[in-house]
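Below is the data:
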Amino acid sequence: MRSPLPSIPYPPSRDGFWNPVTATINWCEEDYYVTPYVAEFVNTFTNAIFVYLALVGISSCIRNNHPRVFLVAYVGYMTIGIASVVYHTSLKYWMQLFDELSMIYTTCILFYAVFSHGKSLFGQALLGTFITGLAIFITVYYHYLGDPVFHQVMFGILTATVVFRSMYIMEKILRPKSTPQSKAELLDTQLLKKMWTLITCGLVSIAIGFLAWNLDNIFCSHLRHWRRELGLPWGVLLEGHGWWHLFTAPLIWLHSDDPFRPADILEHVRHTTPMVHMEPIRGLPQLDLDNLAMLNDYWNNGPVSLTANGDITSLPTWLFGETPDESGKLHNATSCVVITVDRGSGDLDAFYFYFYSYDQGANITQVLPPMNGLIEDTEHGMHFGDHVGDWEHNMIRFHDGKPTGIYYSQHSSGSAYKWDDKALSVENGRPIVYSAWGSHANWASPGDHVHDSVLLDYCDAGQIWDPVSSAYYYKFDPETSLLTSIFPPGAEASTNLTSFLYYSGIWGDFQYPDDHPRQKIVPYFGLKRYVSGPTGPTTKQLVRKRLFPDHPERKNLLQWGVGIYMSLYPCCFRGWRAWASGIAFIGLLVCIVLGIKRSLKWARARKEGYKKIGNEESIPLWELDYLDDRTSNHRD
């Protein structure tokens, strides 16, 4: 029967570079039908999904400082992919063991991860001993038995145990005990719902893959016949074991929530009053984007701040900005400023500034352990570091019209990527940016991100926003520091609209004094509930050598101390390690003291040298100690 689709004949099995076959399983795919160097072509290259997703997981674990056991599990996951590649390439017995046993070992790691949750150190050690012994038993017995069915049964039992244990943890430990009340509990409930969806999809996927795996074995003769009828490339779709590789790939779900959307810059100015030392500046005309720079003349007595009208603790509606439509456009707000800086020699930097009327800082749920135990939650769920006004930005560097790198602003620092960096997502030539919940810090990927060593940012792909669909455009001259407006075709150039960019003051309230009724302070650390707003785009180092600003914000002593402590915490201060580190430190201190003492004694002796007793000196015999054999207790 001729194939109903355009195709080329499906080649038969043939001898190849790795012959003879020594594996106990030779899958249904014809051997060496594509190349003499790869025994099972489809079964080999479908493992690329394992390696790729493992690398994504490893990168996520390192970036977000996840527990080490999950990093090891992802390494095991990648090992499975690599082992499967070498097995299906060669069909050698030892490579088959490498493939199948790596599946067992990685599942054992996951077994330890889910069963060690909440266990004491002794319990974890006992569990580790048990699972190691089980892995050794499976290895030895499988090598002795040589039956692949034993491997499949043990792998299935371990996988099912991990899945059911995960379900138990989700329902009995993670799910709130009562109807969710707080924001954190609501988020936990939403996350659990997504986790159940993930597990359902995973079970369906693994069931389909496992079915394809076994159908590949049972109906091999029929599948080979049908593949020859269809020809290439369509016959590849009937490679059942290859489908197993694809259907077991993990799925990733993300977090979502942020009430503070992009805000209109002019509307923000209209809802504020310029103040110096919290006193309004008198005699000003109505302010807009064309005359805001006049406030720079009032800096003699202190910085000018665009202070919000009314009580910001009540969160008036204008602070929330505007939510973009489904296509990502704003209809009643201009929240973006684009500034290009020609650096010469074909280099150009394009800055994209995003404006929000309110920045909500972190609360206790966003503080990493063990520091969260040191911060007293004086008011349940109170955020600290809030401020009115928020300027965030990306900078894209071009060379001869082609993008070469991008910078993401994040709190007091940021991150930068080359344009071909695998961590950077680009869609239709445009980089993807994830704005963090509340803080609006810019990240290159969704998920949880650690900043300032101890705090978390939450990002997701919730609501799309195209900032340049409604933006102001400018050119900046590095030599003169002058800005020139760029008007899109068809726009009426009735005003320059550059004055607001020259304004050098604060785009929000100045930090309230400690005794102000709105101000709250976190004990010991001195964290304020409200801090000063940001300065504008022209203060963000538009002229820079690297993607990063040339003059980064300096850390204070407390920030340095917290950073060093958090970097050492996993290895040196977590749990029993704190006692071990303390003992080691005391021992080191004692050794240093004794070493200094011995060194001083040695130096003093060397300085004085050998002193000979003179002829006129004598030592009386009665001053010599001696032992009388007759009065001693010595026994031969």
Observations:
- The two ends are 109 Å apart (CA to CA).
- The mean pLDDT is 78.
